[in-house]
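Notes continue from the previous slide.

Worked example: a multi-chain complex. Inputs as given:
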Amino acid sequence: MADSIENFELGFGRHAPYGLRASVDGGAVTGAEVEIGYAHRGLEKRLERTAWLDCVDVAQSISCRSPFHCALGMCLALEDLAGIEVPRRAVLLRAIASEAWRVGDHAQCAAECMDATGVQAWSRALMSVRDSMRVAVDCALCVGGLKRDAGAGGLDRLRQSAARARIILERAKRFVDGDLMLRARACGLGTISKESALTWGITGPTLRAGGADMDLRRDRPYLAYDELAWNVPTGSRGDALDRIDVRLLEAIESTHIVERAMACLEPGPVSSSDRRFMLPPKHEVYGGVDGSIRHFKISVDGIRMPARQLYRAVESAGGELGFLLVSTGGPTPHRLRVRSPSLAACQIVPKVLEGIDVEDVPLVLASLGIAGDEMDR
Amino acid sequence: MPRGYLTACLDDLLAWARRASLWRATFFGACCSAGACGEDLATSLAPIEVAPEGADLLVVVGAVTRKHAPLLAATYDRMPKPCWVVALGACASAGGPFAGYGVLPGAASVVPVDVYVPGCPPAPSQIRKAMQSVRDSIGERGLGLERS
Amino acid sequence: MSEADIPKGLVDGLAGSLVGGAGTISDPFVVRCGAWLESAELLRRAGFAVLIDLWGVDHPDREMRFEQCAQFLNPETGLRAVLTTSCPADDPRIQSLVDVYPNAAWLEREIYDMFGVSFDGHPALQRILCPGDFPGHALRKDCHVDEEGQAWPIR
């Protein structure tokens, strides 16, 4: 006798839900349908009306899980378009912030997996890692670099938070390795093989859990990733346990990258000296006529970017987060497409849930790390 | 203590009971900073989170999109009356920065909101103040007054 | 490796349908609308097994108004190829890539939702992001549903 759960809506953690309708027979899911769009805020349309320099701030609201990676991807795309070179110190600070946010995002995903299995203590510990990393990072992105330099105190705090995060993450990994209950539940659950992941366009930790050694930070390097030595953890089976493992290992690796990048930091400017595509600094605006006029013209008329089409992707915590920019030489983008890694992960949900017990559905979904608002934009 | 009877106004007794035992249902729209408010919600004056069928406080967090609006209305309908609604954050209060076709200009377009909490994300002090306003307004509403 | 290393055999294979381009994002392979599926199949056979993204662009000033682009990845070599085609405003229809790349299903639904382009052969072409009663197609340049004053009932 087949039961059916109609309009059973799931929201994981604290981000936008997607609708899931599953038909269940004897406790196991026989079929599922996913409906998305509940967090569709029309950001791509909005970005078509947004002045170039403001696009970075709007990009932050694309994803609640990784606002920094969204803003970073947008910055890199705009700097590519404008042909701006970012100073070395800003590049390293961006890399540090990017990895710090990755630690937080992976910790949150692991916390949700622990929540789904009922291990409340680890869920809280990992969420505290996320909170502390988010608070410790102070990196305000703008086109051409950063809005302000990170103070020495801020960097020390971040170093301490990263060290503390590493301790908790390593303990969490030892727990996951040793806990028989968790392993019994998650091993072999919701398997996505490497071939399956590639066929469905899935990237990021879910793809690496299946054994694919693909990471944009290494394969198409940006920021300073090609100069810093680090590893890409991969799994072998592609099940929920591998996905949790890969995320924890990546987060631990990210704490190492943060330290190595901090060791390479040298004093210097954090903002490009190329003035064509940036607002003039405040002392010039208030101190002289040229700066004041330039600020006025940029604010009112907007900046015109060269007419080109380009695609720039970053490795966010969920996978390849890409920005496709089409510029026709106007003050706003003609088309700005956001390639969300969560869309691919959500599309495979009906296939992954087939045959899964209903009690295990939350764990499988949490291990996929789907960010609803990034998917819907 | 001598045996006897306690006489009080029924409205006051019920309001006192309701105020002290607010059970919360949370409705998450598209919120960029929902995580930041999570702890504050839990540690403020409505720590118990339940399904809408058993809640008397609905907290709407984040932007409510047009597609999500019928579900918000359905969630409100499932809650036993009287109930109170808090719109948490700039998006739930007034649509936030998302003026456009996707997002409603505030949760008030769909459900009757009692307390608006501004901010993106709202500061912990603002959330506590909002919860206090809810408790105060519980006392003001008479017994059996239904909301349409 | 750069995008300029797209295998010559691929360019030759596409030659019949290829109108121009080098396969990079700034200079994509341009194919005729009728050869869209065939070109994608050719790319699949050449090793570009992953459909990274599929998107549309509205050029209201062109006769072939709706441009459709796809980005493919070869997981073995890490190369990426970009394919693009266009369809006219009075008959916005393109062949669906679902049989070749399963993840095209939702990507094509999104293009249908945002631009109104139909996909022949798509199993379930319906809106994905906007609600079912949304008037128009949101990302078209002449769609102004978000301007104030537009009456679109709530609930």
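Summary box: Residues 88-117 of chain A form the longest helix (30 residues). The radius of gyration of chain A is 22 Å.
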